[in-house]
Amino acid sequence: MLSYEKMFQASAGLLATVDASGHFRVLNPTWERILGWSLDELRSKPFIEFVHPSDREATLAEVAGLLQGNTVDRFDNRYLCKDGSYRWLGWAARVDTGEEPSEQLIYATAIDVTIDRERLSQLEPRLQDAKVYEKLFRVSVGLLVTLDPNGYFRHANPAWERLLGWSPEEMTAKPFIEFVHPDDRPATIAEATALFEGKMTIRFDNRYQCKDGSYKWLAWTAYMDPSEDESTRLVYGTAHDVTSYKELLGEFERTLARLRDTMEAMSTPFIPITERIVVMPLVGQMDTDRIHQVMTVALEGVQSTHVQVVILDVTGLRDLDTRVARALLDTAKGLQLLGAKTILTGIRPSLAQTLVGLGLDLGSIITKGTLQSAIASALTNDLNPGKPNHA
């Protein structure tokens, strides 16, 4: 026959009855093992005196509810041990409402949950931090994601849906590369591979498809924590929308290109004097590109307009070194092959010395002291190469 008395004595849980006056009536030996008080000491005064002062109000409220017919499935409070410390007890209790009110007892069982409560208190700061991080994750205007080694986003915050239209569930449902513009996929895959090899991405730009079919430019910063287990390692990434910046930059580059073309045209003008005479005033600094441009404009201009005389005015050039002098002679030879004569005007003493020092054949070039004399000579057909300058 089952012996309830033996089970009562051997139970690892704390078993008790409490009468209407608030005293323990029956207690099993586990009380003494857990708290250190003898059973007679526990029965000698109202049980509430063993409860931690901070927990007494809530405990008395639970007792009042029990006496009104409620059942307690779980209630935690702290009980005083004989050595002055406290232990957390987790309670379940009920009252047999079939008994006379004066004879009603609270039947209760408790377990020692001190270790669990201590662990919970240790975890509480981390749980609070986790709640804060979760809120930041959800309200962040930046796009936050984690990427697993299989190429799937593991987490995506709501900012993705606000910007691209895809829900977090849609973002994590297929390989991330499918959202990337086809032209950007090779570079993106290379960047992701480098991330899983330990490289940090400071700035990487690519285009992501919106749900409506358009694309947005995103600027990425990403990092993989090498301390994580390799099988569960994730890349942590954040991105922001730089579409307007890219569009502005593109417009700026197009404007700059137009300005550059305009400046180049202005820096090497091909100015007609008559149908057969043009002037090319050369101003500023001559570099390799500029020298090439002068020759190109002169040759193409003569070929397209059938000009017979090209006046190269070097008055406004800052420096005239051997490189520039040779280029001018090459231009004159090219023009000669196209049937046009070249007049060089504005020569300063330094250039004259350079030309003499080069020992080059100047037979294809007519020289004049001023632009006015060069134009006058061209108009009067006084174009004999090597003829002395009387202007």
Automatic annotation (TrEMBL):
Alphabetical list of SUPFAM superfamilies matching this protein: PYP-like sensor domain (PAS domain), SpoIIaa-like
Domain PAS: from-to ranges: 1-70, 129-199
Keywords: Phosphoprotein
Domain STAS: 267-378
Name of this chain's protein: PAS domain S-box protein
Signal peptide: none
PANTHER family named in the record: RSBT ANTAGONIST PROTEIN RSBS-RELATED (PTHR33745), RSBT CO-ANTAGONIST PROTEIN RSBRC (PTHR33745:SF3)
Pfam families recorded: PAS_3, STAS
TM ranges: none
Native source organism of the sequence: Nannocystis punicea
Domain PAC as annotated: residue spans: 202-254
InterPro entries: Bact_StressResp_Reg, PAC, PAS, PAS-assoc_C, PAS-like_dom_sf, PAS_fold_3, STAS_dom, STAS_dom_sf
